[in-house]
Amino acid sequence: MKNTLILLIDFEGEPELQDQNYLNSRYVALLNILQDRKIDREKCIIVFNTYNDISDTFHNIDNEWKKIDNPQLRKLVKYAWLEKWSVYNMVKETNAGYIDIDIETFIKAMKQKRPEFDIEPNKANIIIGGTETAGCILSNKKLGALNWSKRGYNTSIYLPLCAEVSALGNTWYEKQQGAFANFWSEIQNHDPKDYKLLNILSDFTQIREQLPFSDVKIKPL
After folding, report:
1. Which DSSP helix (H) or strand (E) runs through 155?
2. Mean pLDDT throughout 181-201?
3. Please, which residues have CB within 8 angstroms of residue 51's CB and are 6 or more apart in sequence?
4. Exposure letters 14-39 (e unless 16+ CB within 10 A, then b)
5. Strand partners, 201
6. Is residue 219 one of the residues assigned to a domain?
7. What percent of the chain has a predicted confidence (pLDDT) above 90?
8. In a domain, 124, yes or no
9. Where residue 193 sits, what CATH number does that domain have?
10. Are strands 87-89 and 3-9 parallel, antiparallel or unpaired?
11. Cβ 27 vs Cβ 76: under 8 Å
12. Which pLDDT belongs to residue 129?
């Protein structure tokens, strides 16, 4: 059974510019994954490319989740910790999102953070969510789904974990429609072999096929 890396790109989004109910739906989608106690925590990890954290003056904080500035995200990551998930971030490597790191840099950093977790193409599935489905999530960032797919990884964009900001539209529903149009236009610019391993998933029953499960439920802290 393969490992699974859940990569969340710019997951906080732009709360001041986005409808809160719309953003909350992503937290619910992530919570649905975290709540499943049969997902193998040794073979599935969660990584944020960045999030806003508290000032370095709080460097002595004992748990990483306590450094997260956004209270909703902080609560969610705390919940993940209680449910024995391993949650990592690339805040330092990406300079809080201002450096667009590539996959090689990401893997090198993860080997330091979690040496035993194999992220080779034949050993790991990649599940991606975040902000801007047709942009950063797909290919605008070097960690985008299309770039993993090109490297031979079985890669999935999980739509319930995605949200839009810049797509045109007067409502959030219209923005999602616009994002899909942008997504398709971008895909057509690439050779079909580039997205042969790219999946677009829309519900939890589909994502379960990409997750490693154990016969035994974990016991939370």
Report:
1. strand 154-163
2. 94
3. 11, 12, 68, 69, 70, 73, 89, 91
4. eeeebeeebbebbeebbeebbeeeeb
5. 158
6. no
7. 74
8. yes
9. 3.40.50
10. unpaired
11. yes
12. 97
- In the chain, the N- to C-terminal Cα span, in Å, equals 26
State the Cα–Cα distance between residues 39 and 178, nearest whole angstrom. Answer: 34
Range of the domain at 108: 3-210
Instruction: Compute the distance between CA of residue 84 and CA of residue 207 in angstroms, rounded to an integer.
Output: 20
Closest to 67 (Cα-Cα) out of 79, 56, 53, 78: 53
pLDDT of res. 75: 94
Domain count of the fold of the chain: 1
- Stated pTM of the model: 0.93
Distance CA 212, CA 162 (A): 22
Report d(CA 75, CA 174) in Å as an integer: 30
Closest CA to 159 of 89, 118, 206: 206
Q: Which two tokens stand for residue 123?
A: 């050993």
pLDDT at 117: 98
Q: Per-residue pLDDT for 3 more than 50?
A: yes
User: Is 129 a domain residue?
Assistant: yes
> Does the pLDDT of residue 172 top 90, yes or no?
no
